[in-house]
Structure prediction request, 151 residues.
Amino acid sequence: MAENEKKATAKAAEKTKGFAAEFKKFIMRGNVIDLAVGVIIGAAFGNIVTALTENVINPLIGCIGNPEVEGFVIPLIKGQEINLGALITAIINFLLMALVLFLVVKAMNKAMSVGKKKEEAPKTTKICPFCKSEINKDATRCPHCTSQLDE
Prediction:
């Protein structure tokens, strides 16, 4: 019985070593670090968008309707309330974040494509001068009208 317990303990230790080595390999990959940096920058950018929404956009919306967008609540029974102002703020934050990310990705894609030249693939077909069908460029006879073609 004691030997079976030793084998089970050794097997568990081996699994732990394998898991730790696999986790270390995963962490040391470059794309995980890039992802972590992206999340941190995204969180900081989210704070900027939230500040813009709360300090600029909400007051502008307040000029149109209720001066306190954050305070726009619907009272319910027993002192409960639905805070629509917070929902509106969250939706505006999301839309602003999505718009800015769209513009950033679009600009990055355009910047990446500036250096690349579009290479045209060599033509593999030509037009038969007799029947105007598309045929292989190396053909000596048209498969549609059977005309003899000049090279």
In short: The helical segments are 2-28, 30-64, 84-114. Residues 122-151 form one domain. The radius of gyration is 33 Å.
